[in-house]
Amino acid sequence: MARFLVVVESPAKANTINKFLGKDYKVEASMGHIKDLPEDRMGVDIENNFKPHYVIIPRSRKIVHRLRKEEQGKEKIFLAPDPDREGEAIAYHLSQIFKNKNIFRVSFNEITRPAVTKAFQHPGSIDLNKVKSQQARRILDRIVGYSISPLLWKKVAGGLSAGRVQSVALRFIVEREREIKRFKPQEYWSIEAELKPAKGEERFVAELKKIEGKKAEIRRREDVERIIEDIKKEKFVVCKIEKKEKKKNPPAPFTTSKLQQEAFNKLRFSATQTMQIAQELYEGVELGEERVGLITYMRTDSLRCSQEALEEVRGYIEKNFGKEYLPQKAHTYKSKANAQEAHECIRPTSVLREPEEIKRFLGERQYKLYKLIWNRFVASQMRPALFSSVEIEISAGRYIFTASQTSVLFLGFLLLYPEEKKEKTLPRLEEGEVLELIELRDKQHFTKPPARYSDASLVKVLEEKGIGRPSTYAPIIRILLERNYVRREKGYLFPTELGMAVLDLLVSYFPTLLDPQFTAKMEEDLDKIEEEKQDWVEMLKGFYQPFLQDLNKARKDMRTLKKEVIKTDKHCEKCGRLMVIRWGRKGRFLACSGFPQCKYTLPLSTGVKCPQPGCGGELVERHSKRGVFYGCSNYPRCRYTSKTLTQEVGEEVIDSNSERGEE
């Protein structure tokens, strides 16, 4: 008979921990939160200092019954959910269902035998300040959601919702899309000279950078032709050679946001996929006869690393790469100001578990993400890379051309964490040397609009602006996609017509709530509650009264889009009445003007012709459990479908997803 009961969130985590604890411990899983605010009402007594009314989640009733049964005869209860605010709230609600008051909080950043054993040797108590901070966030989100969502049902369509943080994220996506639509490409030209030394055959290319000491800005073809004719009259002379040694420091180990960004950029994993795979690696994987967590806790904004891990990785680097790759002392990285320093960075629980050694135990995606985390952490503790750079200026009268060369002197961390860069080579040149012109080339360019947000770039901007926290980045994107406010195409996030309409209403009537700076301040206030620097009730009072004023105005004045219909000349195929365009929870659609007597509907056409030969139909936006896709309007006669549109619509710039503003 076990003497102690241990409760964690997931069966996978329970399975791993169970291997580390002896027969005196019984490990059970709560399957996440067991209590929450009720689904059918606000569940917050605003007049009574925002007192929350928590209830057992319906799906958790059997779990609670099982846990209470397991409690019987146990000397102690150990609560071991994840080490963050959500985990602390889960532990607090679990503590309320037990009669036994001999309850302890156990916390660890990695699920390995040493970490778990140490945690159980030094159990603590529930951090009520973390619980208050999580509770304040939950109440804030409930007030916003349960106040604005019914308003959207009434004004736009049933089934819609609004969220405090995801609405601001939607604003970024919509505003970026409109910036792209407004963008007008500007023409500009570049001029290159292909040159070679008078006594050599090695050719190289230099680019025109300055004209009479000022930056070369060429906007018209006629100017290009005039400048080229002018340059042809001049001698090309090497006027300046500058040699430098440059150092590139290794990147810091991963935080949640940086892991999501890099996993998207290098592996094309969405933020949700990254966190799901990271959760699996954290909770434990069977490695032959051993089950162990492979990475530390994956929801963190800290760059701190334990002394034991630093000693292990430094020993590994010296043994496997040599002393020349090991810095004199361990690198330390400064976390951002509001980081939770109780956590560590995301790192392998042991660098001795090399990716290739355990590859056979991992799924393909698990292996790729583990290797990325392993490489990044080991690289973060290696010596910087050293480069030799040569910058050359070449004069042609009043025109200055430049060419450069960079060569690696010492790979350092790049040996393990390489960057894709094409090296340029130059012939050996001397100042005052006259060069031979082989050819002058001109090239026309157009400035490009800013890139649409991807999962990576949206997470980056949310982090930079202090919106959301490590645990919220992936859910924010997932919810926007589920609500059909945003669609993902080729890895980029496009706002839907519905998303734009909802955002415009929210910005008009809830300007403060949709202000990124206000949302960031709310995050800071939640941090202050955890740090016991702010009272959670006072924080909610400060938010609620201005919000209530905006809400009452919106209830009175907001446009009712669902009542606005646009007449068309298309006839209903069932009753012959004219069709009209209406709003629904998936956007605008065609409906019979005879509704509710006739309920015939059709999706709106995108204006893109069906590519099937001889079809003659148009592609329409359709929805399935897997998301948005495009199908032929002649379905079922034509069954063509596509995940993306096959041609440009209107003036959409398809190539606006470059990460650069200009070529």
Give a nutshell description of this structure:
The chain is of the alpha+beta class and 663 residues long. 34% of the residues lie in helices and 23% in strands.
Which key features would you list for this structure?
663 residues, alpha+beta, Rossmann fold, Topoisomerase I, domain 3, six-stranded antiparallel barrel, four-stranded parallel sheet, 23% strand, disordered C terminus
How many separate domains? 5
CATH superfamily of the largest domain: Topoisomerase I, domain 2
Distance between the termini: 70 Å
Based on the coordinates given, report the CATH architecture of the largest domain: Orthogonal Bundle
Low-confidence stretches are: 646-663
The biggest sheet amounts to: 6 strands, antiparallel, barrel
Query: What's the number of extended β-strand segments?
Result: 27
Name the CATH class of the largest domain.
Mainly Alpha
Helix proportion range: 25-40%
How would you describe the shape? globular
Structure report:
- The chain has 663 residues and is an alpha+beta fold.
- The chain has five domains: 4-126, Rossmann fold (3-Layer(aba) Sandwich), CATH 3.40.50; 145-182 and 451-557, Topoisomerase I, domain 2 (Orthogonal Bundle), CATH 1.10.460.10; 187-249 and 385-446, Distorted Sandwich (Topoisomerase I, domain 3); 256-380, Topoisomerase I, domain 4; 567-642, no CATH class.
- Helices cover 34% and strands 23% of the residues.
- It has 17 helices and 27 strands.
- A six-stranded antiparallel barrel has the order 9-10-16-15-12-17. A four-stranded parallel β-sheet has the order 2-1-7-8, sandwiched between helices.
- The radius of gyration is 31 Å and the shape is globular.
- Residues 646-663 have low confidence and may be disordered.
